[in-house]
Amino acid sequence: MKKVIMDVDTGIDDALAIMYGLESDALEFLGITTVDGNVPLDMVNRNTLKVLSMLGREDVPVFSGAAGPLMKPSRHVHHIHGEDGLGGALIDYPYENMCEAQFAPDFIVEAARHHPGEVTLIAVGPLTNVALAFKQEPLLGELLKEVVIMGGIVSRAGQGNSGPNSEFNIFTDAEAARIVIHGGANVTLVGLDVTKQAVLTARDIETLKGSKYYDFIKQSTEIYRTFSMDKFGLDGCALHDPLAVGFALNRGFLRTEHHYVDVDTVSPLNYGQTVCDFGGLWGEEPNVNVSLEVDSARFVEDFLNVMKNASGKI
């Protein structure tokens, strides 16, 4: 199985991504690292531990990471993920598992050194932990097999979700994102170009009725779907983070191209923009696989099948 580390800021779609990855039985989770993002770090830790407890996977170690961006104040989005970060779905859920003592960036470096060329790092939150790991180990890009990032937007100008041309994870810590993008790793950017097309609708959720996670998925996504309905007229939840896991599971879900990408950390208009040089005007070597098309129907079907086939009771 493919060895993975997931770096998360566990809100609703992070939880779905963790569930998808673990229930797929195709990925070997070396650990999960947490970072401040959708909600504050202590809430991210609590949510991650609760989700693992719900899955019966307390064996997966969780490593607490950065409590805020490298250079900016924290920025949270409770209006999308709820006051607890999971739409109230697990507020009273019991859990006894705890975070490990080791700092998340230290764990990332240690795991990469212990398994050189084998570890896929799936980062679905702000890239603060990952940047700190790259600064600690300059050869980390060579030690990791690949880095799959849910973040950015490259081909759909004006359709960002934190600025007209910026996506939340990159915008939250653009300085960290720039370090990672230029860190020499095999990077794939799974951005809003494709994730906004991968939507879990209310009708999709109803196909899960009677399955293990139906209640959790329906309740947790309700606030997310309400936000989508109010803003976009769509009763659905974009599967941003699960699609990054989906790419790790099946390359066929996405069409990517290799281009040079940089991150804007200066402009007041476009801070956090992932600027892709499609025409090679800068003459730089390509450094990122950018996702441009998604087979959304096949991906959503796979996500639903994995959820339907999950065994046992919560």
UniProtKB/TrEMBL annotation:
<dbReference type="InterPro" id="IPR023186">
    <property type="entry name" value="IUNH"/>
</dbReference>
<dbReference type="InterPro" id="IPR001910">
    <property type="entry name" value="Inosine/uridine_hydrolase_dom"/>
</dbReference>
<protein>
    <submittedName>
        <fullName>Nucleoside hydrolase</fullName>
    </submittedName>
</protein>
<feature type="domain" description="Inosine/uridine-preferring nucleoside hydrolase">
    <location>
        <begin position="4"/>
        <end position="301"/>
    </location>
</feature>
<dbReference type="Pfam" id="PF01156">
    <property type="entry name" value="IU_nuc_hydro"/>
</dbReference>
<dbReference type="GO" id="GO:0016787">
    <property type="term" value="F:hydrolase activity"/>
</dbReference>
<keyword id="KW-0378">Hydrolase</keyword>
<dbReference type="InterPro" id="IPR036452">
    <property type="entry name" value="Ribo_hydro-like"/>
</dbReference>
<keyword id="KW-0326">Glycosidase</keyword>
